[in-house]
Structures are given as C-alpha cells and as structure tokens.
Specification:
Blueprint: H1 7-14, H2 23-41, E1 45-49, H3 54-72, E2 78-83, H4 92-102, E3 106-109, H5 113-125, H6 133-159, E4 161-163, H7 169-172, H8 195-205, H9 209-212, H10 229-233, H11 237-244, H12 251-263
Parallel strand pairs: 1-2, 1-4, 2-3
The protein binds nicotinic acid adenine dinucleotide, adenosine-5'-triphosphate and magnesium ion (MG).
Nicotinic acid adenine dinucleotide (DND) binds near residues 141, 178, 182, 218 and 229.
GO molecular function: ATP binding; glutaminase activity; metal ion binding; NAD+ synthase (glutamine-hydrolyzing) activity; NAD+ synthase activity
Pathway: Cofactor biosynthesis; NAD(+) biosynthesis; NAD(+) from deamido-NAD(+) (ammonia route): step 1/1
Subunit structure: Homodimer.
Length: about 270
C-alpha cells in the first residue's frame, strides 16, 4: 500500500466518514451526543427547521429523542421544530408528514417571505444591481436561507436553545449550503454521514417511505422551484456517497469532487485573519 494517502481517503477522513456503518448504533450515538450537549451546556431547547426533506426529518426525530432522553435524566429540555416556508411551500404536505413522524414538543411557524423580499428590495433601492434575473434570484435564494438562520437563532436566543444544523459529509464535500445560512448551527448531529446513510437512519427511525426516499432539493430559487440538488450540482448523490465510502467512481466524478472540495474549503472553516 502507498504511504501517500489518496485524496479520496483524506477527504473521507477529514469529513469523518466511518469505514463501517450500523444505523441503530449511529442513532444511539447521535441521540446521546445531542442530549449530552444540552446537559453539559445547561441549555434547555433544541431548535431546527423542518423542510419536509430527509435530512431535517432525520435530524428532527433525533432531536425529539434527545430531549426526551435529557428529560428522563432530570434535565429540563424541549425540541422546537420550526416551519420556515417562503410563502406557500409546494411540498408542504411533506413538511406536515415530517412533523407527524417527528412528534416535536413544539412547532413554531415563521414565513421567511416578508423578511427575504424586504431585504432584497432594500438592497436594490440602495443601488445593488445584478447581471440578470437569474443572478438576482440566486442571491435572493441565499437571503432566504439566511432568514431561516435568523429565525432559528432568535428562537434559540429567547428559549436558551441550541440551533441544530443538518450538514453531513455528502453536503459538506461540495459545500452545497449557504455560508452562514443553513451552514450556521451550534450542533450538527448528522456529521460524517453520506446521503444513503442518512436515509438508512431515517428508515431505522421509522420515517415514512416517501420522506426516506425523497429527492433532495434546496428549493431556494423562485425561477426554478424544487430544483433538484443533483441537477444543480451536476453530480449524483450515489456517486458522492460511493466516493466518500471509498468505492471506485468514474475519474471525472473524482476530479469534480476533489475540485469542489478544495474550492469550498472556506465554507468549512472559521474566517481567516492576518
Ligand atoms: N475563497 C474564499 N475564501 C473566503 N470566502 C469566500 C471564498 N470564496 C467565496 N467566499 C465567500 O463565500 C460566499 C459564497 O458562499 P455562499 O454565500 O454560501 O453562496 P454560494 O456558495 O454561491 O451559494 C450557495 C449554494 O448552496 C446551495 N444551497 C444553499 C442552501 C441550502 C442548500 C441545500 O442543499 O438545501 C443548498 C445553493 O443552491 C447554492 O448553490 C461569497 O459571496 C464570499 O462571501
Ligand atoms: N422550508 C423550510 N422550512 C424549514 N426549514 C427549512 C426549509 N428549507 C430548508 N430548511 C432548513 O435548512 C436545512 C438545509 O436544507 P436541505 O435541503 O439541505 O435539507 P432537507 O430539506 O432537510 O433535506 P434534502 O437535502 O434531502 O432536501 C434543512 O434541513 C432545514 O433545517
Ligand atoms: Mg431540502
């Protein structure tokens, strides 16, 4: 075996992807982690946006199990699931199915449309211009993700809570999240998981099949509603997962992933200083 670690192995190590996987063990380890963070910090709430996608469905159920675990140990804690639609969400029924499955202590709904639209409007009134409508829509999309972050941190601030993020290895590798938007969180219980492992955990937790198998979407762009992550990325999650789990992938996929990983390093680090 070569002494020089392959880029594939190095990236998998840096993103904490484990060589083996057992869904039940991972559920236990991650629930204990969340419950311990509550007890150790003395904070009393977990706060997470529930979109109807498989990542927040999975993380949400782990959060509810964790607060129940913390309460059983005598610590006062609640899980606040947040619905954060931009206006009317096309797949609202999936979000409702997720809430029904998670059975959170509390649901708090905040429409991020007024704040997101006002932010864009004041920027334009202030003189910001865009190259075209598509660029404006893309920037507006990141504003929506950051409005969700603002809403979750407001709740955490008022309720002595921790904001939960849904980042995992299959998203972290491509930097496919909004910096300081959905990328901002206090705890990230899905760390190190590939997308298929997130789905396996969702299934083991008993999530409905339509959510376990739901195609991922950031759903941030008004001009391309429900745009699939795989179309935006030009990469399939199966290939991303294979790469992270040490399986062979086509050379072009490997090159694209290594390039994206390097280009998005700044999103996984704290800001640089001199
Ligand atoms: N080399 C560098 N060193 C330090 N900072 C650097 C940098 N290059 C850019 N930056 C900064 O980073 C900014 C770009 O990052 P960012 O603002 O995030 O913007 P960007 O990466 O361009 O857009 C976010 C992407 O993530 C996708 N997304 C967002 C939210 C959720 C999901 C999902 O899967 O659900 C996906 C979204 O569809 C979009 O494709 C730049 O404007 C600049 O401020
Ligand atoms: N409409 C929404 N309502 C509430 N939270 C949201 C909404 N959209 C995004 N979020 C939050 O932002 C996170 C990142 O979105 P992302 O699309 O990566 O995850 P997901 O929707 O849970 O799963 P998937 O990636 O499979 O679509 C979500 O997990 C959720 O916490
Ligand atoms: Mg989604």
């Amino acid at each position: 075996m070569s002494d020089v670690m392959s880029a594939q192995q190095q990236i998998a190590d840096e993103l904490q992807v484990s060589a083996t996987f057992d869904a039940e063990q991972e559920i236990e380890r991650r629930v204990v982690f969340l419950a311990d963070r509550l007890v150790d910090t003395g904070l009393t709430a977990l706060v997470l946006g529930i979109s109807g996608g498989v990542d927040s469905t999975t993380a949400g159920r782990l959060c509810q199990l964790a607060v129940e675990r913390a309460r059983a140990a005598g610590h006062s804690a609640v899980f606040v699931a947040m619905r954060l639609p931009y206006g009317v969400q096309a797949d609202e029924h999936h979000a409702q199915a997720a809430l029904e499955f998670i059975r959170p202590d509390r649901v708090l709904t905040v429409d991020v449309k007024p704040a997101s639209d006002a932010a864009l409007e004041t920027l334009v009134n202030g003189g910001l211009t865009f190259t075209d409508d598509a660029q404006q829509d893309f920037v507006h999309g990141n504003i929506k993700a950051r409005q969700r972050m603002i809403a979750q941190y407001a709740v955490a601030g008022a309720m002595k809570g921790l904001v939960v993020g849904t980042d995992h290895a299959a998203e972290a590798i491509t930097g496919f999240f909004t910096k300081h938007g959905d990328g901002a969180a206090d705890v990230v219980p899905l760390t190190g998981l590939t997308k298929r492992r997130v789905r396996a955990i969702a299934q083991a937790l008993g999530a409905p099949a339509e959510l376990v198998g739901k195609p991922p979407t950031a759903d941030l762009e008004s001009l391309a509603p429900g745009k699939l992550d795989e179309d935006a990325l030009g990469l399939a999650y199966n290939e991303i997962d294979d790469f992270l789990e040490g399986r062979p992938v086509p050379a072009a996929v490997e090159a694209a992933l290594v390039d994206r990983y390097r280009a998005t390093e700044h999103k996984r680090q704290l800001p640089l200083g001199p």
